[in-house]
Design goal:
This protein is an alpha/beta fold and 419 residues long. It contains 12 helices and 16 strands. A 10-stranded mixed beta sheet has the order 7-15-16-14-8-13-9-10-11-12. A 6-stranded antiparallel beta sheet has the order 2-1-3-4-5-6, with helices on both faces.
Length: 419
């Protein structure tokens, strides 16, 4: 945690303590927004005291509805630089001051009806202790992302438009989301997200870590956040010690508000089921929303040989006899409701999807590096007939470190070659 973030956290707790000290039992709940602007560390603004309901949950529900109805409320609060949203009220005979900042950290001040002492906790200590109800947390998280928006971009990750219209203004999270919004249709969409050096290298020692940057991670995280399902090859899982996607409470609230489950599912294409079932991907969540069980896409031969051994750790999806039939696998995933599929590679899986004509979009980062060593490209495949190479540039963006972000889409069905 940075020094600035520690100062903000301390300020949020101070506001909650001050609110608790002046609380009167039986009073209406109060909703506040908290802004952090030096030299004044906190500028709390009371949005409302009480609504038709009489509980903090009623108050949060009312203001979420107001945000739906009046975009001006959201714009005004974001213009004020809101860092956190807090609600204060009476729950089960206790007074609570409960806040969440835009990174998802929670803050809690709790007091008893008969007793002057107040207990304060923040960060992971809130989740580990006795926290308010999940419903209250979810409502507060939704109001946080609506009123406060996402955390500011990390150093070096400011992004601007390049094509079709060049722009000098840094894109905020909502604008960046619009640049990468998936198609509105519900037929299903397979998007490949990848990174490459200037000379076409996609990985060093089996990992893309040497090529990524704060700007690349910003785009990568946004694309993953909008996915129904993340599709990977077994080699990528082994090489990168791939684990479940970590999302903050406001990010989860945004997914749920958009009709998505709390976390994207993860599906792994594997011909042999040679995977470490004790690895990060197969660990269950300790608290909060539970990640969906990984889906292992395997041919029938591998399922018959080793399927029983992995049944407790993952769900099996059988597609093909001795090799994975990707057409069948994608069709089955779509039938299960996974319409927005994001493929993270590796090169072998990306090449197979390209040859099977299953890719609808490629989101590619070109890192400003010339590595001049041997390594894989973003796709790999056998010698012979190349895959259909007809793509069109949909958009390009640039970050302040020189990373170039390219979004390619396929021509419409009538524009594609036959055969």
């Amino acid at each position: 945690m940075t020094s600035a973030h520690r100062d903000t956290s301390s300020s949020i707790l101070s506001v909650l303590e001050e609110l608790s000290a002046t609380w009167r039992w039986g009073g209406p709940p109060t909703l506040l927004t908290i802004s952090h602007r030096p030299p004044k560390p906190t500028v709390p603004a009371i949005l409302a005291r009480g609504v038709d309901g009489h509980t903090p949950l009623d108050l949060l529900a009312h203001w979420i509805d107001q945000c739906h109805r009046h975009r001006g409320i959201v714009n005004t609060q974001r213009d004020l630089g809101v860092d956190a949203v807090a609600v204060s009220g009476e729950i089960d005979g206790q007074h609570i001051g409960y806040a969440m900042d835009r990174s998802g950290l929670e803050y809690l001040v709790r007091g008893q009806r008969h007793g002057p002492e107040r207990r304060r906790t923040s960060g992971t200590d809130v989740a580990a202790g006795t926290r308010p109800t999940d419903r209250l947390t979810e409502r507060l998280a939704e109001l946080v992302w609506r009123l406060a928006g996402p955390p500011p971009p990390a150093a070096g990750s400011r992004i601007r438009d390049m094509w079709p219209t060049a722009g000098l203004v840094d894109l905020d999270e909502d604008e960046l989301h619009e640049r990468y919004a998936p198609p509105a249709h519900n037929r299903g969409h397979v998007r490949l997200v990848t990174v490459s050096s200037i000379d076409g290298l996609a990985a060093v020692n089996g990992s893309s870590a040497a090529l990524t940057s704060s700007g690349d991670q910003r785009v990568y995280r946004l694309i993953k956040r909008e996915a129904d399902l993340l599709l990977l090859g077994a080699g990528t899982i082994r090489a990168e010690q791939y684990g479940q996607t970590a999302l903050s409470a406001p990010e989860i609230a945004r997914r749920r508000a958009n009709g998505l489950p709390p976390y994207p599912a993860v599906a792994v294409v594997t011909r042999s089921l040679d995977l470490d079932l004790s690895g990060p991907l197969f660990q269950h969540s300790a608290a909060g929303h539970t990640h969906p069980r990984p889906i292992l896409i395997v041919p029938a031969a591998a399922a018959a040989e080793r399927g029983t051994a992995v049944a407790e750790a993952a769900e099996l999806l059988v597609a093909g006899e001795h090799d994975v039939d990707l057409h069948q696998a994608i069709q089955t995933l779509r039938q299960r409701g996974h319409r927005r599929i994001v493929c993270e590679g590796g090169p072998s899986l990306a090449g197979q999807l390209a040859h099977a004509d299953l890719l609808d979009e490629i989101c590619m980062t070109i890192a400003p590096q010339l590595l001049a060593v041997a390594g894989p490209r973003i796709t790999a495949g056998p010698a012979g007939q190349p895959a259909d190479g007809r793509w069109q540039l949909h958009r390009s963006l640039l970050d302040e470190q020189g990373n170039l972000f390219l979004r390619y889409t396929r021509p419409g069905p009538s524009d594609r070659p036959v055969g």
